[in-house]
Amino acid sequence: MRFWEALLAEDVNQVRDFLQSDASLAQACAPYKLCRREPDLTDQMTPLHAAAGRGWAQQVKLLLVAGADVDAEADGATPLHEAAEGGHQEVVELLLFRQANVYATDSSGRTALHRAAMAGHDDVANLLLDNGARLEATDDEGNTVLHCLAAGGCETAVKRVLESDVETDPCNTTHQRTPLHLVVVHADHTTASRLHPAQRHQRARMERSARLLIEHGADVNAVDAGGNTPLDLFNYLEGDNENDPLVRLLRKHGGRWMRYQHRHAHANVNANANGASSNGSRMSFDEQPQVDQAVLAHDSHNSRMGTTSGSMAARSAMGFVGDPIPLDTGSVIIGRNPDCDVRYRSRTLSRKHAQITFEQGSYMIKDLGSHNGVIINGRKVHAPHLLSPGETITLGTYEFEFDGENLLPLREELSENELRAELKR
């Protein structure tokens, strides 16, 4: 336990002393008590998993010298999986130097390259490609490396893979989606993507990845299992926005709406009066299937949630993120503590962050002395606030819409990778 506490405290000197006195500690899995305290740890993880996932190069070096198993598995993942998903290039290089297995797959059938790609780590993806990672590898959902690179906006790796003459329009097995579909699904559709530099940069990377796919022959009108073209998915996620650069790019190359053709009939007619797709195939508009909400939610699990106010209601009402949180007529406390009525794990949320009470036929929200405060419709409130249907509530990294008697989550729980990243801030 003391060794693990020194490791997590980033006490390099103490870690070195422990390993010099007992090298077997390099193989010791995380203690159960520690796992209960640290949400990103499991009792199958070795110290090398923990250090690699956090990007701690010095600790990784010490553990490797002490004989840590470079290919140890924890919940199906190796240290290379953890480092790749975190985008820790120096650690990835250390593990590859020690002959880490680049072909190893986790419990979802994903290689380290799949993980780095999905997380948007272009440099790490290229490094893994340099070290023999297989382009033809597919995960359990049929996603190819190109699917994952496109979803992560890894534009230089996307270009590299496309130039190797791989298939441009492979369909995954779960939803029959192409890499171009995934670019649209995983692009940042929040309001921040137009306001903040980091989000604008992410959105621009996705647009450039889409352009590369199209330039190499991707079908802009490919239809998934739910009957959706890439433009349909964009319309569902963000609403009508024909001036968006990504929409303009798809339209420029003959992109059409199928599910939402009634909203864009004039554009479809102007773009291609004979109903042909960009690759010459004929598409019927007579009997188009409805958007499969469960399928779309599945592919969007790793996407950022939140959008403009016009589409928030549509997404929450259709159950896009999760089940409504009923408020009933009592008191609901939201926070990180295990005893909270609504509990999330991000450290942007205080232990007891906010409370919603039912008073005289209305719902009132108040801040419980949280660090990041309670934000309603983008404005921080400093006193108890009477909630109105349609208002957006932001608590730390989480967003909800109030529909009059429920909270409708607009942001899923953070991924394990995102929670790990918080610990390093």
Automatic annotation (TrEMBL):
Q: Which residues form a coiled coil?
A: none
Q: Ranges for the FHA domain? A: 332-381
Q: Entry's CDD domains?
A: FHA (cd00060)
Q: Where are the ANK repeats?
A: 43-75, 75-107, 108-140, 190-225
Q: Which PANTHER family match?
A: ANK_REP_REGION DOMAIN-CONTAINING PROTEIN, ANKYRIN REPEAT, PH AND SEC7 DOMAIN CONTAINING PROTEIN SECG-RELATED
Entry protein name: Ankyrin repeat domain-containing protein
Matching entries from SMART domains are given as: ANK, FHA
Q: Which InterPro entries match?
A: Ankyrin_rpt (IPR002110), Ankyrin_rpt-contain_sf (IPR036770), FHA_dom (IPR000253), SMAD_FHA_dom_sf (IPR008984)
Task: List the keywords (alphabetical).
Answer: ANK repeat, Repeat
